[in-house]
Write a structure and sequence with these properties.
Layout lengths: L1 E3 L9 H9 L25 E8 L6 H20 L3 E2 L5 E10 L4 H11 L5 E3 L4 H5 L2 H7 L3 E4 L15 E3 L4 H13 L5 E8 L2 H14 L5 E9 L7 H8 L5 E5 L3 H13 L5 E3 L7 H8 L7 E5 L13 H13 L10 H18 L5 H8 L28 E7 L4 E3 L5
Parallel strand pairs: 2-4, 2-5, 5-6, 6-7, 8-9, 8-10, 10-11, 11-12
Antiparallel strand pairs: 1-13, 3-4, 12-13, 13-14
Helix pairs in contact: 2-11, 2-12, 6-7, 8-9, 9-10
């Protein structure tokens, strides 16, 4: 089922709106003072452009965090080996990546940004809502692009509040609504238990899900519980939810070890509902297999990217090229367990489109080009999904398909089974 979804836009603050309106007239800055029109911004020369990434490279989120660097490095490593990218100003440049570890700590993320901002042309691809929020206001003040980052927080796709930002992956509400629409279309009655992260991540998913099922007579939400992202166990919550007899659990969880533990705990309790899992915590190899997901009647997620582990894509031209580049240029020798590697490869492809549109070597020209990409079918994208950066309130990717785990990878489904 292809689900092209829309979310509610937050009202822009007056001061942020004024900033956004004034931005095109502002001289190019970014921690380096004002610049005349056409004068190159920091981080770009006639021969190269440098991009910065702050992301978790160690700690509990190091798996997906490492992927956010590997995919981008692989994409541009291959392009650099082929001679570079021809920008819109006629210059051919190679793309360099400077990545720093923030361990998913907002304070470290802000420190990394401060370290990078004067030496990089733009920041990109970094994972996490709290970590990206930690330096969002500074990036606006410094006029440093925070482009195609890995968070589903809708704040980053609101041009009034975030004029130098744009998210890449679907916003949380998009994914939640896709799950809700699938379940609401079922011919059976369902009792739903909800376990969500107690922050914007969890709240966004639940908001999207509830908006899709609010008029569905066949859906009853029997219990809702939350957990903290810093928790080391959710056994108590799973135990309490199991007592409801729900046949579906909507599990808006972003922490890999907790997702595995939740799947295992439910089995210990002999509670075997169907699961809805977010795209960033539904990896077949890293989460579903160790979690024993085949014990359940169905595990569903959403996606917009081809999964290399799926037999359906084993010989896919995009996948073969991607895996070879990931190994050679991305310092990632094994097939990736997390989808973030595919997503960041797509980020690289989208940035190439932006670079080709840039008419001046400036951050202002970059932002103008960034918001002009439409209906771009990036390599590794699933059918009926595309990159569109022109719609305010939406990230670069807002189209998703719902998929069901088949024991190895995922199959796209049109109905709840």
């Amino acid at each position: 089922m292809n689900t092209h979804l829309r979310s509610r836009r937050a009202l822009g603050l007056a001061v942020a709106s004024a900033l956004a309106l004034a931005l095109p007239a502002c001289a190019e800055g970014g921690g380096g003072g004002s610049r005349s029109s056409g004068e190159a911004s920091p981080g770009i020369t006639d021969d190269s452009v440098t991009l910065g990434i702050t992301t978790p490279l160690s700690g509990t989120t190091a798996g997906p965090g490492t992927c956010t660097v590997a995919g981008v490095k692989a994409y541009f490593g291959k392009k650099n080996a082929d001679g570079g990218i021809e920008f819109g100003d006629g210059k051919t440049r190679k793309v360099e990546i400077e990545a720093l570890d923030d361990t998913y700590d907002p304070q470290k993320a802000k420190a990394n940004y401060d370290q990078l901002k004067n030496d990089v042309f733009a920041m990109t691809a970094g994972l996490g809502t709290p970590t990206n929020r930690a330096w969002r206001e500074a990036a606006i003040a410094d006029e440093v692009p925070q482009a195609l980052i890995m968070t589903g927080d809708p704040l980053f796709s609101d041009t009034d509040e975030s004029p130098m930002q744009l998210g890449f992956v679907p916003i949380y509400q998009n994914e939640g609504e896709a799950f809700g629409k699938l379940l609401a279309g079922s011919s059976q009655d369902h009792k739903v238990a909800i376990l969500s992260q107690n922050d914007d991540f969890g709240e966004g998913y639940v908001e999207g899900f509830k908006s899709a099922v609010e008029d569905a007579d066949n859906i009853e939400i029997v219990k809702e519980l939350t957990y903290e992202a810093t928790d080391t166990s959710v056994d108590a919550q799973i135990t309490e939810l199991s007592s409801t007899g729900a046949d579906v659990i909507f599990n808006a969880m972003s922490v890999t070890p907790l997702t595995i533990a939740a799947l295992q705990k439910a089995q210990q309790l002999n509670w075997k509902p169907s699961w809805f899992l977010p795209s960033n915590t539904s990896s077949p190899g890293a989460i579903l297999q160790p979690g024993g997901a085949t014990a359940y009647p169905g595990v569903y997620s959403v996606s917009f990217a081809k999964a290399p582990a799926s037999p359906a894509f084993a010989q896919d031209e995009d996948v073969v090229e991607y895996l070879a580049a990931l190994k050679q240029y991305g310092d990632y020798p094994e097939p990736p367990a997390f989808p973030h590697c595919q997503w960041s490869w797509m980020v690289g492809a989208t940035l190439e489109q932006v670079f080709m549109k840039m008419e001046e070597p400036t951050r202002a020209s970059f932002m103008e080009a960034l918001r002009s990409v439409k209906d771009f079918e990036a390599p590794l994208m699933l059918p009926d999904t595309s990159v569109n950066t022109t719609e305010d309130g939406q990230p670069a990717v807002s189209t998703v398909v719902v998929q069901k785990y088949n024991g190895k990878g995922y199959d796209t489904v049109e109905s709840f089974q």
